[in-house]
Amino acid sequence: MRRLCVFCGSNPGHAPAYRSLAARLGQTLARRGIVLVYGGGRVGLMGALADAALEARGEVIGVIPQALLDREIGHRGLTELRIVGSMHERKALMAELADGFVALPGGIGTLEELFEVWTWAQLGLHAKPCGLLDVDRFFAPLVAFLDHLVATGFVSPAHRAMLVTAASPDDLLSGFASYQAPRVGKWVETSQT
Questions:
Q1: Measured between alpha carbons, how far is 102 from 4 in angstroms, rounded to an integer?
Q2: Comparing C-alpha atoms, which of 132, 142, 138, 141 is closest to residue 164?
Q3: Exposed (0-12), middle (13-18) or buried (19+): which is 33, by Cβ within 10 Å?
Q4: Angle, helix 87-97 to helix 108-122, in steps of 10 degrees
Q5: Residue 187 pLDDT > 60
Q6: What angle do CA 43, 84, 10 make, to 5 degrees?
Q7: Which of 127, 105, 109 is closest to 118 using CA atoms?
Q8: DSSP-based three-state secondary structure for 140
Q9: What is the CA 133 to chain-centroid distance, rounded?
Q10: Strand locations in 99-185, DSSP E?
């Protein structure tokens, strides 16, 4: 893996463990020579992630819409800051640049970005790994709901298994290294009743 796209909060959240996890991931990527691709912000977990990667001499590519840059939340100290016209362009460019995707704790935007790239993988539009990097069981309710989607017949077990979940950056990257995209159809059941 040459480049990893990370989705995470533009807020720090309440628990110090969230910021610590973001910093550990940034340091781990730099240590392994993996380029960080992220949303280009200097605030919240985004800023902690980028700063840690940069301090560890890593390469960081930020992708940010002009409107957010104008609000002065863009990180000006990155290896490269790509400015785009919209959130749609941001997500498309981040997806193009990355070899895999991971979500750290975050809010609605973080989840939306992760679910979009995971959906693309489910549809066979890419074969890149997607994952959750969990701390303090932040994602436990989401993981339980995803398992509920399988139990109720809306997501196939193979598609559910596409989302790698790990508690440490090293475990996540190990899971990504062995990732094989499944070759199954999108629909859980094709017969109509």
A1: 8
A2: 132
A3: exposed
A4: 50
A5: no
A6: 15
A7: 127
A8: helix
A9: 9
A10: 101-103, 130-133, 163-166
Average pLDDT, the chain: 94
CA distance 193 to 190: 10
Q: What is the pTM of this model?
A: 0.94
The token duo for 192 is: 């109509």
Polymer length of the chain: 193
DSSP 187: -
Kindly tell me if the per-residue pLDDT of 160 is higher than 70: yes
pLDDT in tens, 36-82: 999 999 999 999 999 999 999 999 999 999 999 988 789 999 999 99
Torsion of CA 140, 88, 129, 49, to 10 degrees: -70
> Tens digits of per-residue pLDDT, 102-119?
999 999 999 999 999 999
